[in-house]
Amino acid sequence: MVFQDLIWSEKGDYTYPGAQIDMVIDRADQCINLCEAKFTKENFAIDKNFAEKLRIKKAVFKIATETKKALFTTILTTYPSLKNQYYQEEIANEVTMDKLFES
């Protein structure tokens, strides 16, 4: 397991694939936010393939870290994501760029 500049990565092995998570927020309330950053010039849409990648990343993180904490996928975006079926299934929280720089 590697923590570098807020990025978590796991090379994986024959039992599970590798994965990279852009930012991990390990909270005091026994929850972990696994953050995926997507910077685009328009609203981001999660499709079936991307949703599957998010599920795999969460599973790999759980296996590799052996955490018992609750895991939540959070998306960091330039503009709000489209709230389609895959967003509803996979995303627990969303933070947009304007909220990151709000005073």
Q: Can you describe this structure?
A:
The structure is a single chain. The protein has 103 residues and is of the alpha/beta class. The protein has three helices and seven strands; from the N terminus they run E-E-E-E-E-H-E-H-E-H. The protein has helices at 48-65, 85-90, 97-100; strands at residues 2-4, 7-10, 19-21, 23-26, 31-38, 70-77, 93-96. The strands form two sheets. The protein has a four-stranded mixed beta sheet with strand order 4-5-6-7. Strand 1 (2-4) and strand 2 (7-10) form a beta hairpin. The chain is globular and about 35 Å long.
Task: Name a few traits of the molecule.
33% strand; alpha/beta; three-stranded antiparallel sheet; globular; 103 residues; disordered N terminus; 3 helices
